[in-house]
Amino acid sequence: MKAYKDLSKDELLKLKDELTQQYEDKKALGLRLNMARGKPAAAQLNLTMDMLDTVNSASDMLASDGTDSRNYGCLDGLPETKKLMADMMGTNPENVIVFGNASLTIMYDSVSRSYTHGVCGNTPWCKLDKVKWLCPVPGYDRHFAITEHFGIEMINIPMTQDGPDMDLVEKYVNNDESVKGIWCVPKYSNPQGVVYSDETVKRFANLKPAAKDFRIYWDNAYVIHHLYDDNQAELLDIVGECAKAGNPDMVYEFASTSKVSFPGSGIAAMATSAANIADVKKTMTIQTIGHDKINQLRHVRYFKDINGLKAKMKAHAEIMRPKFEATLKVLEDELSGLEVGTWVKPYGGYFISFDAMEGCAKRIVSLCKEAGLVMTGAGATFPYGRDPKDSNIRIAPSFPTPDEMEQAADLFALCVKLASVEKLLETK
Amino acid sequence: MKAYKDLSKDELLKLKDELTQQYEDKKALGLRLNMARGKPAAAQLNLTMDMLDTVNSASDMLASDGTDSRNYGCLDGLPETKKLMADMMGTNPENVIVFGNASLTIMYDSVSRSYTHGVCGNTPWCKLDKVKWLCPVPGYDRHFAITEHFGIEMINIPMTQDGPDMDLVEKYVNNDESVKGIWCVPKYSNPQGVVYSDETVKRFANLKPAAKDFRIYWDNAYVIHHLYDDNQAELLDIVGECAKAGNPDMVYEFASTSKVSFPGSGIAAMATSAANIADVKKTMTIQTIGHDKINQLRHVRYFKDINGLKAKMKAHAEIMRPKFEATLKVLEDELSGLEVGTWVKPYGGYFISFDAMEGCAKRIVSLCKEAGLVMTGAGATFPYGRDPKDSNIRIAPSFPTPDEMEQAADLFALCVKLASVEKLLETK
What are this entry's molecular-function GO terms (chains A, B) (predicted)? Predict the structure, then answer.
């Protein structure tokens, strides 16, 4: 395959005609496809239906410590639920608070609490002139939406194959007191599938923040969400590493079972130091009478332990893997050698990240849409929805069927080609 | 019975000796009783165990509009859940947002959102020098804890048998722009069991707030929580009344199934105007990916409709009523005529409110505690925990068994007598 950039103007014009014809043919099919949603397919949800039988009218509803899971009380989670979530995150139960149905809400509430009441006795952020936040890019749009909602100035940090550019992270965190946090998805990052290297984690743990209330928001969303039985990434335990480095209070870690059991009906947790837990609980005791303990019991009795969670994730992977592979095969077959985009094969998580030629992402997404394929909006993976290079596109292969996924990937590749040719013609 | 205040010093001294002896005898029994907790008894929780079978591995998990209740999506609640909660509150589904497991959290989040982002475009409260709040007293300590947590200045408003003193409410709300809210438990109020009269509700709906962002926090916690089949209180629909009065945006109403199904595992909702719903959703869409829809489905399929809820509340009442009546009988038998306290027989809700002689509440609670009976702390029913008369005590008869309740009430009455005699002797 010849790279598009090496084609002459005439060759490009001819190619454009061919691609346009193919595109019009596709459009005529009236497809209705969606690669935007990072949500499990129905087949995955079916995997856990028997969890709904686990707690029933005949069940003993007492937790291991005698708590009646049906009544008020127990602010921070049943002991066995803390243990399960601790094992999931690779930390200790005493570092864990179990919350409600989503880690996103814990993150929002953590930013909100810092804004209204401050972190561990420091000035509430609403009283500060300026609060800044580091955002490894590309990243997760819902993270950026939270910091934007609170008027926090977001600073892009480029991702490398080992995690965020740590030179830049250190420069900002260690020197600028207004930098109060950083969004991280350290394992199978959203959208690139990057796993933070041991060195990256250790450099995080050894930050010397200018701000006493700087916190790493460590969203371990895909902690056990492997796609393969082998090639499973290992990530250092950030809570432990921070403690070792003399920075025990510097991190909030988050995880949930949203993509293990049921999105919206799972359980979510935070792991952090004793001092942070005490600080969080001061607000938590005002905000809630406690979370859904029956659902906590349901999860623990169904999964039993970390091995139960892992076994379920293996079943998820068997459904997810063919979709990822079908997508990657189409990208490989259709685009390799053309030099119109790059992508990385992920070993876990929910996404494939595609980097188009500069200035092409919006056009690609728009071409897809016109032909019946909904993609995540171009720019969504950047703060304020602004991708400076207009290049990154997030592909979510989980929700469609494998057949739909192949159709969708095919159409996507065609749109990439067409947009790239258009772009190259602009300067010929 | 002769009123204690009419006894001579000698009579009081003799009485004190007798009561002290009785008290020491009680203390020697080593009782462990609790009338502090407004939580359902295990027998009540057993009433709803079969709800746990309603949604199981064989269930159709699609909601009425085709939403897969197991997956992401549906920010404001399944249509059938909105309908159920609307019927519970006596309003329309389009006025309802279904939230998570507790109305307290909705209230906290509403205050927090107003503090960080303002109400419908008005200045966020964190940017104001002063925010004030009206607190009908005695009231609910967890309400007061929320406003205290945000540094909001709380102003006591005396309760009457028809609800809060509306002259005072109107004076503050209609003239002071820094008054941004009022806590109300309009039906079977916590702790007095007062039901707001139609006139009170209409006067609320016709307030002319100085502040555009003033909101009534209408915590309809006991909306269907009657103790009797007859004598069921009716309350006007505040959302409708506010609309009629040209104040559609002035109220947030809250309710939950916490004391219908399971505390902590129920569903909670807010009812308000379209404009407020749009305003709330702006933040909600950042804060959550949606609440637990499987639990919503479980509730709707189990209760089916408002009649299902009402039938369940009848069964709850049959368990609660004997405890209330046992308590009231002891108070009547032991204290009537002594003029050492007043109380009102409630027809719903979870509490009996007792007003001791001025300056006696703390002493009574402390005497109870010493003899093994935990009561809600004296002062808890007032903002900042300060009862200016040191008089009000909240009695929660729901959790103990009827036998325990009778024992507890007996001990309580004895402590009331002893503390009253001590108080009268101070001035003889």
Answer: L-aspartate:2-oxoglutarate aminotransferase activity
Q: Which residues of A touch B55 (CB under 8 A)?
A: 52
Question: Which pairing describes strands A392-395 and A352-356: parallel, antiparallel, or unpaired?
Answer: antiparallel
**What's the CATH fold of domain B4-44+310-426?**
Aspartate Aminotransferase, domain 1 (3.90.1150)
Instruction: Tell me if chain B has a CB within 8 Å of the CB of A144.
Output: no
Look at A70 and B291 and tell me if their CB atoms are within 8 Å: no
Flag if A71 and B262 touch (Cβ within 8 Å): yes
Which 8-state DSSP code applies to residue A327? H
Question: Which of A71, A108, A286 lies nearest to residue B263, judging by beta carbons?
Answer: A71
A139 in reach of chain B (CB within 8 A) = no
- Interface predicted TM-score (ipTM): 0.97
Q: Name the residue among A57, A68, A288 with its Cβ closest to that of B104.
A: A288
Q: Which architecture, in CATH terms, is A65-304?
A: 3-Layer(aba) Sandwich (3.40)
Largest CA distance in chain A: 78
Amino acid at A295: N
| Inter-residue contact B420 to B345 (CB < 8 Å) | no
Architecture label for domain B61-304? 3-Layer(aba) Sandwich (3.40)
Asked if A178 and A212 touch (Cβ cutoff 8 Å), the reply is no
The DSSP bridge partners found for residue A136 are A157
* CB–CB contact B72 A263 (8 Å): yes
